[in-house]
Design goal:
The chain is of the alpha/beta class. The chain contains six helices and seven strands, in the order βαβαβαβαβαβαβ. It has a seven-stranded parallel beta sheet with strand order 3-2-1-4-5-6-7, with helices on both faces. Helix 3 (87-108) packs across helix 4. The longest helix has 22 residues, at 87-108.
């Protein structure tokens, strides 16, 4: 059986102090033991060039264990320091650029699966699929329900949800519950 080549697009920079980067890295480490996984992470403008990425990931995971996945620091249009622009707008524009660049890389490198938890990535995939076929399997992990997401998930092959409420609300033919626990 061929090992799947997975692109995991995660909009959580290593410079973040939020729990999402820890969850993302734990998930990448677990999936990487089962498949050929590459984690696409944003190379945000506050990320220092001289930081050893592998070392930083191990520090966040609090492990000396070898990483089971590869990573790709994606350069993109990052508006982090443009404080004249309202924070939500900066975040949204930057996230869209990161998602677009990550999807472009994943399609160009011919991954078997594109996996994400990011709604901006989901939006771009949804729009791209309206224009041309994408042969890669799309897996989306949802942590909350919304009517917008309910429309966007029509473009995914597999939907992972974290509770029964989402499972019933989304009504996706290939939805599975994987409870959110690190």
């Amino acid at each position: 059986m061929k090992v799947k080549k997975i692109s995991f697009i995660a909009n959580s920079p290593l410079s973040s102090n939020k729990i999402s980067i820890y969850q993302t890295l734990c998930q990448a480490q677990s999936i990487g033991k089962l498949a050929n996984l590459t984690l696409m992470i944003p190379k945000r403008s506050d990320y220092k060039e001289n930081i050893d990425t592998s070392k930083k990931i191990k520090e966040i995971l609090n492990t000396s264990e070898e990483l089971s996945f590869k990573y790709n620091n994606i350069n993109y249009l990052d508006l982090f320091y443009y404080t004249i622009i309202p924070k939500r707008i900066r975040f949204s524009i930057s996230s869209l650029f990161f998602s677009f660049k990550s999807i472009h890389f994943s399609l160009r490198e011919n991954y078997d699966v594109i996996f994400t938890r990011d709604v901006f990535t989901l939006l771009i995939i949804y729009l791209l699929k309206k224009v041309f076929p994408i042969k890669q399997k799309i897996v989306f992990e949802s942590h909350q329900y919304s009517p917008l997401r309910s429309k966007l998930i029509r473009c995914v092959d597999v939907l992972l949800v974290i509770n029964q409420y989402q499972l019933k609300s989304y009504k996706h033919k290939k939805a599975y519950i994987l409870h959110d626990a690190v």
